[in-house]
């Protein structure tokens, strides 16, 4: 194995949600009329990433628990607005049936798709990024994963907020330029600023610039909380009042926002195959679901990935 080639970690839910909303259902249907837009888009994203990043290892991470009880116990508002009336996550009716098909296709190709009970995909990605031989690249549209960037290993985030074709290859400098904090301080910065998409309230009256200044000055939320207890720490009275009012939230927010790095992962072989491990199954699925084009592009990307650049 050539250690200069990256381990590519895929935030599968992030990518297949983007694929679902990025491709009209009318443009991707199986012969029986079932939508396969998320599957088609996800396979093409995967092919593009393999072709452009040239990994020798690849793992897809899954949400086995999109809203873990241990996070909700600390912060009941965590993702509360995304809970369906019958429980579980609000997922479009025509996306849910496509996810098992994505997993079948990955199995036929030979790409591991890993989830762990009680943890989100982010936690699986974080643990793999922290424990796998570098270099590591994480592909996701989730800003929370800026915290995984580590130039010393290196771990990079391929941020797909605007799609894989326009991904942003982010290192620590990119995070500093965008947010004014180092990647290691991003989780504390996000806790201060808040994130409505995850039900994180943040500190009332503290926006992005103030949050960045606080992290830059005090190093971490622990440093900020310690400074609150020091009358000579130089907080403006209004800011001290805001932070003091949010002390209970700030005591739990870091554990909620920080990605777990110690998830008990199952055994897996991340080696990216040069060809599908079960070509007959892949062909049958491609024909059954009208996915011959994207499957062919992915197989071509695998074959081309073995050729020296």
Automatic annotation (TrEMBL):
Taxonomic superkingdom: Bacteria
SUPFAM superfamilies: 5' to 3' exonuclease, C-terminal subdomain, PIN domain-like
Molecular function terms, GO-annotated: exonuclease activity
5'-3' exonuclease domain: residues covered: 5-275
InterPro entries: 5-3_exonucl_a-hlix_arch_N, 5-3_exonuclease, 5-3_exonuclease_C_sf, DNA_polI_H3TH, FEN, HhH2, PIN-like_dom_sf
Alphabetical list of CDD domains matching this protein: H3TH_53EXO, PIN_53EXO
Keywords: DNA-binding, Exonuclease, Hydrolase, Nuclease
Function: 5'-3' exonuclease acting preferentially on double-stranded DNA.
Protein name: 5'-3' exonuclease
């Amino acid at each position: 194995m050539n250690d200069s080639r990256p381990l590519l970690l895929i935030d599968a839910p992030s990518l297949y949600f983007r694929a679902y909303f990025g491709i009209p259902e009318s443009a991707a249907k199986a012969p029986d009329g079932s939508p396969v837009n998320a599957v088609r888009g996800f396979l093409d994203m995967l092919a593009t990433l393999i072709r452009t990043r040239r990994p020798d290892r690849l793992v897809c991470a899954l949400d086995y628990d999109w809203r873990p009880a241990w996070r909700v116990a600390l912060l009941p508002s965590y993702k509360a607005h995304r809970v369906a009336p019958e429980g579980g996550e609000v997922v479009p009716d025509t996306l849910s049936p496509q996810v098992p098909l994505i997993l079948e296709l990955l199995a036929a190709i030979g790409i591991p798709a890993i989830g762990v009970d009680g943890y989100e995909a982010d936690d699986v990605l974080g643990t793999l990024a922290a424990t796998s031989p570098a270099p590591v690249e994480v592909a996701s549209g989730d800003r929370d994963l800026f915290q995984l960037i580590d130039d010393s290993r290196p771990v990079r985030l391929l941020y797909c907020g605007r799609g894989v074709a326009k991904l942003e290859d982010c290192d620590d400098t990119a995070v500093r330029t965008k947010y004014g904090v180092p990647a290691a301080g991003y989780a504390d910065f996000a806790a201060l600023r808040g994130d409505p998409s995850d039900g994180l309230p943040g500190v009332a009256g503290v926006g992005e610039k103030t949050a960045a200044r606080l992290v830059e000055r005090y190093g971490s939320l622990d440093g900020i909380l310690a400074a609150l207890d020091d009358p000579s720490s130089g907080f403006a009275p209004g800011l001290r009042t805001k932070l003091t009012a949010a002390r209970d939230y700030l005591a739990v927010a870091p554990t909620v926002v920080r990605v777990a790095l110690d998830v008990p992962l199952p055994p897996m072989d991340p080696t990216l195959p040069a060809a599908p491990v079960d070509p007959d199954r892949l062909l049958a699925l491609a024909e059954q679901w009208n996915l011959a084009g994207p499957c062919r592009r992915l197989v071509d990307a695998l074959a081309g990935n073995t050729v020296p650049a």
